[in-house]
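Running this now, will post back.
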Amino acid sequence: MKNIKNILSLFLFLITAVAFSQSGQVAGKVMDGEFNDVLPFANILVKGTANGTTSDFDGKYNLDLEVGTYTIVFSFVGYQTQEITDVKVTSNNVTDLEVTLNPSENALEEVVLTASSKRNTEAAVLSLQKKSVVMLDGLSSQGIKKTGAGDIAAAVKSVPGVSVQGGKYVYVRGLGDRYTKSILNGVDIPGLDPDRNTIPMDIFPTNIIDNVIVLKSASAEYPADFTGGIVNIVTKDFPTKAEYSVSVGTAYNPDMHLKDNYLTYEGSKTDFLGFDNGKRNRKINRYQPIPGTFDNKILLTSLTKRFDSQLGADTETSNPNYNFGFTLGNQYEVSDTNKLGYQASFSYKNNTTFYEDREDGTYIKNRFDPSVNELGLDRSVKGSSGHNEVTMNGLLGLTFKTQNSKFKLTGLHIQNGESSAGVYDLKVSEDNAGGAFITGTGDELLYTQRSITNFSFVGDHILDANSGWNMDWVFSPSFTSVQDKDHRVTPLRIVDVGADIQYQIDPSAIGNPTRIWRNLSEESWVANAKAEKKYELFSKPAKLKFGGGYTFKYRDFNSDQYIFETTSPIVENGDVNTLLTEENIWTPSTGEGTYLDVNNIFQPKNSYEGEYNVASMFISNEFNATEALKVILGLRTEQFNLYYTGIVDEEAVTGLKTIDEFDFFPSANLIYALSEQSNLRTSYSRTTARPSFKEASTAEIFDPITNRFFIGGLDNKTFDPIVPTYINNFDVRYELFREKGQMFAISGFYKSFTDPIELTFFPQDPSQLTVANLGDAEVIGGEIEFRQNLGFISNGFENFKFNANVSVISSKSQMTEQEYNRRLGNARTGETIDDTRDLQGQSPYLINAGLDYNNSDKGFRAGLFYNVQGSTLEVVGTGDIPDVYTKPFNSFNFTLNKTFGKDGRSAIDFKVNNILGDERESLYESFGAEDQIFSLRNPGRELSLSYSYKF
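Update: finished.
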């Protein structure tokens, strides 16, 4: 409670009162309908007055107006003039108005189009999608605002073809993390887990976001390492006027919160800030020699005493989740044509998770009798685990605009700390064949500390307003750290002794008390530059783009493990906290007690360094072949090098080049305008998926509770060294855009994979996993999406809208001869083995549906949203080890948002997540056998309430 008070005191200190004038603003962006790009220097005029302005370098504008209702006129030489009526300006508020101007067929004849403000705003949401040169979906700032979502993870759920896993990670078209890429302001940055291709979306508050774009087909200017989609999060430059907001929220889960048996342990005094103050640092030098008991040295006692004595969890009552944050933004006129602005945000989240009945299992087929279908248990872990996760996120952006240039400097820091404690029941097969069981208990304590620091320096320039030359560039370094600090695992064997039971340390059967420290640091340096030229081709507008970039990444990973022994294996009452009490530590005088194992030495094979280099160049041309047919052709080249320093084939190597690939990535997008409101699109692209540092290593990363190892795919003596995947992508799509933001689209896609990277078990060992190129694959799918206003039923349903997206996908992976023979050799009686299977990570279907009500006049919005993915191959089996499938998770959620108070500055959000109470479950599936648990977690139902206020 003291920590909470400290945080709230700090939060309140940062909030200041701000005074405002009593006028309002109309602000937005003017877009060029020909190229789906911003339109600088367009004229904006209040009809019937001399009050007006021009759009700036970014196509943005703002008008200060008295409270009232206006008609705003937008014009540009050679373009149709737009008149937007019923534009309402209210005190101290900004009315968002985005307009797209299209070229006039006759430059000498003035064409004036008229639309209401409401209809224009709804149309603007889909304008980007309709005019885009690639297949995309997305959310504008207005669209995000309508969702009522507090962060991007909640808002992006409404984008067709998108699903959100774990409440934070975005997947596109049912393809897993490997094939979906997340970028911030067009730049690749690492997330809290550097081995993921996506960054957590729940760290970005919606009020600092300009738009979120989901690209579903490739273009030469984008990185080649994606297949399902690219999610580009674009932050605002700065607001059109001073904007300040604060928010506070809480969430309650009856399955997790206010539980008096919640598991935790004593951490450091700075855990509430998302980092450890050093209390959990490694206690002895990595290269410190450890004497044995036979040396009879007091040094062994001294070294053993340095380790924290707590090995078992405490119990207390769990707290509900809580969060708060604020945003700041303003702009200043430096001169008549120059502006300086800033955008800042800070958020704090403290989430508590408690799984009372979590389960992890390891199963195998009967290796001796093929007539036995049921799977045999190798190891099961059942019990409870408590997790407290703190995330602090700070972002500051400074932007300087001149008439022809923009410079933007953005700094982002994310600090995350997660404290975990668990108590488990163990059941282990001593013969590793589903028999000879022993039982035991396991206590686990862990603290994981993560941080990301990213800087981005961006420049956009109009080189000559009359020549059509533009240029932009970006330089972005990132620094990531992940530390597992003092992972404490203490397994005990349960032995029946007459009518009593004993708890014993049994290293050979169930393992030793173990402490693990892991440290990962990574830096990434990205530099890109692009130029574009507007010109005429075949007497029609065209655009040429070309540029290049370079990405350098460096990772350093190391691991230290310490094992403890004892002279007496019996642990009284199973209380593991007694093992390292002072009276139970070995000393030369007693010769009895717990001590550090003499074989605790640093193991270089579980540590490595890696370098990752990608040098790229691209060129693309966008032109109109006919009045109705637009063509975009592009070619991208990437030189990819991966270097490894570590242990390979039992020998130390330094800077070993493990991958050296120079590739061409062509792309072609064709858009045929069937009418003003409908398009027919086709596209082709070649893309890639590359192994992560961890996957292209020889490191063995051990989870001592589940007893599972992840072993790198560089040199594991079983599979060939891992290589990149290459994908040929074909898409076709029909789309119809209608009034009131309604649309209908039907798509088909085909993807052929060469050497897909898949997660698999090692043959004969169900506890060891790796990645491998297991054979080529193909994916074919169809997608239907529509957004329908329900006003056609009656006027009373005018504010209701139904959104739906359904994807059906068939994947087929061609097995290698080795995999096929292993499956054939372990077939059950009567089982037929095909030489194809599902592609690992590809869902067979995806359903997104939502019904929402939006009454903007009353500031009220509510919605029901449903999402589910089909059963997905999670881990590829290897004959005697069955396949593991992730089962469908039926996510059904309710949201409600109400604005109130003066000028609607206050807002309340209420949400109910996982209304159906579904569980997250992965199962082993085998012919004729009952499915068995690989992992099981129950997230429960969560109710959340938040309040926000805008100054």
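Residues 13-21, 116-122 have pLDDT under 50 and may be disordered. More later if anyone needs it.
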